[in-house]
Design goal:
The protein has 470 residues and is an alpha+beta fold. It is built from 13 helices and 16 strands. The strands form two sheets. Strands 7, 8, 9, 10, 11, 12, 13, 14, 15 and 16 form a ten-stranded mixed β-sheet that branches. Strands 1, 2, 3, 4, 5 and 6 form a six-stranded mixed β-sheet that branches. Strand 1 (45-51) and strand 2 (57-62) form a beta hairpin. The chain is globular and about 70 Å long.
């Protein structure tokens, strides 16, 4: 029998394909490693991928003419039009040239096209410095500021919820509303696609915790002959920058798999009124000196960094909706209150609180099998992961400067707050989100993390969305 604790690893581990092929961890990769890989494995195309102001994954594709050209692309990147990517962030066409700079450690093989190498990129301006309007730059600056001010490296994971839709057939007679949670095939039709997504993401280097079917199910109706069912992929804890990209890449993989399977994919906050919505909950675990902090079981003994995080989320949760709840159906999801927060509270295990502290599994000896986390339940499938996580880092820094953040926690603890208490309510429309962002903008602009003109443009967009809903 194989010794499961043997140090030798089977051929399919480590999970990321490039780590197996290069026989070294991603942090040690150099451009020459990828050039050698291209020579050995016949890579013909290179895709420089990056996140735009809209939160979607973009790509600039190359067919290198030789290995020198290949090395130049990986080393220097390429220019592109910043106004087309970040016009909504304040870049105008009169001064719009920017540079995509590959981040070698993020490389992965495209799971949808053989012989294509993908590399995620940061954005740089004409001055050779990180582009201030880039969501990537904003998040990196926020994470660095948090570490400087608090000595905390925050790790996070996203829970990606999504609906799959397909034309109903004779075989589709198992589905039932609110009964799909953890269902297995044939009671759900999207199991195979979800498992393909898990495998693809793992090979790309995106760390996964688990995947399962969710409660949502929408049967065929008078206006549509398509059935919809809900699934979830929960990612693994990672530093903020990597955590945001993990969500972006998960969306990209799911969209491609759904397209290939002739299915529809929806990340909409609410697909259809009265049915569960698609949340994008984030879990956080503060790390100090490479160690995850224990949250503990007593609220009055929370670690200082956990207090700052919860206080920041409670105080500025409604403002964070500018980056985490960007569709009109975001407000419908919250008003339906199907395990979605409607008031500003926090607590242990409470799925209707804005912030909750979930339990963690232990082994027979009582050892935690994963770090304890703090869950933020407000954001949904319309979120811009980079901007949302940057905003959360900024609110944690702001809470650290509060005279007594524990007092705020005492007045918003869900177990002690009744429906009649005068607790803060989350915004109910884009105009309210715009108003609180105007009020709190200094929190996000602190130390130049969010440029003032980015906040101005965000407020303008919220006001325009409000006008469109009138």
């Amino acid at each position: 029998m194989t010794n499961l604790l043997d140090d030798s690893e089977p051929a399919h581990w480590p999970a990321p394909l490039l780590e197996r092929l290069l026989n070294k961890p991603a942090a040690l990769w150099q451009a020459d490693d990828l050039v050698a890989l291209a020579r050995e494995y016949g890579i013909r195309l290179v895709a420089l991928m990056h996140v735009g102001g809209d939160g979607w994954l973009k790509t600039l594709d190359f067919a290198p003419r030789d290995l020198h050209h290949f090395r130049d692309v990986l080393s220097g990147g390429e220019r592109c039009d910043g106004s087309s990517l970040f016009g909504m962030m304040g870049i105008n066409p009169g001064a719009s040239d920017i540079v995509l700079r590959p981040q070698i450690a993020t490389a992965f093989m495209d799971p949808f096209r053989e012989g294509t190498l993908c590399v995620l990129c940061a954005h740089y301006g004409r001055d050779g410095k990180p582009l201030p309007e880039s969501p990537d730059t904003i998040l990196r600056k926020a994470a660095a500021r948090l570490k400087t001010l608090t000595n905390v490296e925050m790790t996070a994971l996203g829970e990606v919820e999504y609906f799959l839709g397909k034309k109903a057939g004779e075989e589709d007679f198992y589905g039932a509303a609110d009964r799909g949670y953890h269902s297995a095939a044939p009671f759900v039709f999207g199991e195979s696609l979800r498992r393909d997504a898990l495998t693809s993401l793992a090979e790309m280097g995106v760390a996964i915790k688990y995947g399962h079917s969710e409660v949502g199910y929408v049967p065929t109706g008078e206006k549509e002959d398509r059935i919809w069912e809900q699934h979830e992929i929960e990612l693994q804890l990672a530093p903020l920058v990597q955590s945001a990209y993990a969500v972006t890449l998960t969306h990209w993989v799911l969209r491609n798999l759904a397209y290939r399977a002739s299915m529809r994919l929806s990340l909409e906050p609410v697909l259809q009124q009265g049915h569960p919505g698609n949340g994008l909950h984030f879990h956080f675990s503060p790390m100090v000196d490479t160690q995850h902090l224990e949250i503990g079981q007593e609220n009055n003994k929370l670690p200082e960094s956990a207090t700052w995080l919860i206080a920041g989320l409670v105080r500025y949760g409604g403002t964070l909706m500018a980056f985490g709840n960007r569709e009109s159906t975001s407000f419908l999801r919250l008003s339906q209150a199907k395990e979605a927060p409607s008031s500003v509270t926090w607590g242990r295990y409470n799925r209707k609180a804005l912030v909750r502290l979930p339990i963690v599994a232990t082994d027979e000896q009582g050892r935690l099998v994963s770090p304890e986390t703090i869950e933020f339940r407000l954001s949904d499938g319309s979120a811009h992961p980079q901007l949302l996580l940057a905003g959360i880092a900024q609110t944690m820094c702001a809470a650290r400067a509060m005279p007594d953040p524990r007092k705020l926690l005492a007045t918003t603890e869900a177990e002690h707050v009744s429906a009649n208490d005068n607790v803060m309510r989350i915004p109910k429309g884009f105009h309210e989100v715009a108003a609180v962002l105007k009020r709190d903008r200094e929190v996000f602009e602190a130390d130049g993390v969010f440029p003032p003109h980015v906040i101005e443009h965000t407020i303008d967009q919220l006001d325009r969305k409000h006008a469109m809903t009138l």
